[in-house]
From TrEMBL:
<keyword id="KW-0812">Transmembrane</keyword>
<feature type="transmembrane region" description="Helical">
    <location>
        <begin position="61"/>
        <end position="81"/>
    </location>
</feature>
<dbReference type="InterPro" id="IPR013248">
    <property type="entry name" value="Psh3/Shr3"/>
</dbReference>
<feature type="compositionally biased region" description="Basic residues">
    <location>
        <begin position="206"/>
        <end position="217"/>
    </location>
</feature>
<feature type="transmembrane region" description="Helical">
    <location>
        <begin position="93"/>
        <end position="114"/>
    </location>
</feature>
<keyword id="KW-1133">Transmembrane helix</keyword>
<feature type="transmembrane region" description="Helical">
    <location>
        <begin position="7"/>
        <end position="30"/>
    </location>
</feature>
<dbReference type="GO" id="GO:0006888">
    <property type="term" value="P:endoplasmic reticulum to Golgi vesicle-mediated transport"/>
</dbReference>
<keyword id="KW-0472">Membrane</keyword>
<feature type="region of interest" description="Disordered">
    <location>
        <begin position="180"/>
        <end position="217"/>
    </location>
</feature>
<dbReference type="Pfam" id="PF08229">
    <property type="entry name" value="SHR3_chaperone"/>
</dbReference>
<dbReference type="GO" id="GO:0051082">
    <property type="term" value="F:unfolded protein binding"/>
</dbReference>
<protein>
    <recommendedName>
        <fullName>Shr3 amino acid permease chaperone</fullName>
    </recommendedName>
</protein>
<dbReference type="GO" id="GO:0005789">
    <property type="term" value="C:endoplasmic reticulum membrane"/>
</dbReference>
<feature type="transmembrane region" description="Helical">
    <location>
        <begin position="134"/>
        <end position="158"/>
    </location>
</feature>
Length: 217
């Protein structure tokens, strides 16, 4: 029968897969963002806008795939938060919080920016500023998703180290119990040997007395 502890690794896998997928999506925009946010190149803004327009005009299943993967990541968090380990629950809460930060940035800054790339309406800022806001937003998403991976890696290490300490403790306990049992067995053998020796000595003394009495009579 499948228990809750058997499902927890699935939740971890979903979180790691969703975070890695999100980092891959952001990575696809890096060649365009680097020329607008980190250094200036002539015509880089137009190239970046064309990139985001292509993203916006992609078939809907592309967007649905991204949303589904994000949903799986949240599902993984909820699986692990259903019955969290008291010693590790803050890792799980932190993971959920960082995932939500990434999703909120995507739904607000990126989706709004992509729509602006299509309509050309950037509100109170110009196109260059809007594109750089999108690029900076993706940098923040990278920090959030990397934070998720770091938390999950830290949680894995903490659980591994705890299990290692428990294993060493149980081994020491077993060794001490075996040594105590061996010592007790030796003591019992010594007591039995001493008792047997005393019995033999008493028997020999009785025989000697009986022999002496027979001789006198």
């Amino acid at each position: 029968m499948v228990t809750y502890r058997d499902i927890v690794p699935i939740g971890t896998g979903l979180i790691i897969a969703a975070s890695s997928f999100g980092l891959g999506v952001v990575y696809s925009s890096w060649p365009y963002d680097v020329n607008t946010l980190w250094r200036y190149e002539e015509g880089a803004i137009d190239v970046s806008i064309a990139h985001y327009q292509q993203w916006a005009n992609s078939p809907m299943y592309i967007h649905y795939t991204l949303q589904a993967v994000a949903g799986l990541g949240l599902l993984g968090c909820f699986i692990k938060l259903y019955k969290p380990n008291e010693d590790a629950k803050y890792f799980e809460y932190g993971t959920l919080g960082l995932l939500m930060v990434g999703l909120i940035i995507y739904l607000t800054n990126l989706r709004t920016g992509i729509n602006s790339c299509i309509t050309g309406n950037w509100g109170e800022v110009d196109a260059a500023t809007g594109v750089n806001v999108m690029a900076a937003s993706q940098v923040m998403i990278v920090f959030a998703l990397v934070g998720v991976l770091v938390l999950q890696a830290g949680l894995y290490y903490a659980e591994w180290y705890e299990n290692k300490l428990k294993e060493e403790f149980y081994k020491e306990e077993a060794a001490e119990a075996a040594a105590a049992a061996e010592k007790q067995a030796k003591e019992e053998e010594e007591v039995q040997a001493e008792t047997q020796e005393n019995a033999e000595t008493s028997g020999a003394a009785r025989k000697t007395k009986q022999t002496a009495r027979k001789r006198k009579s």
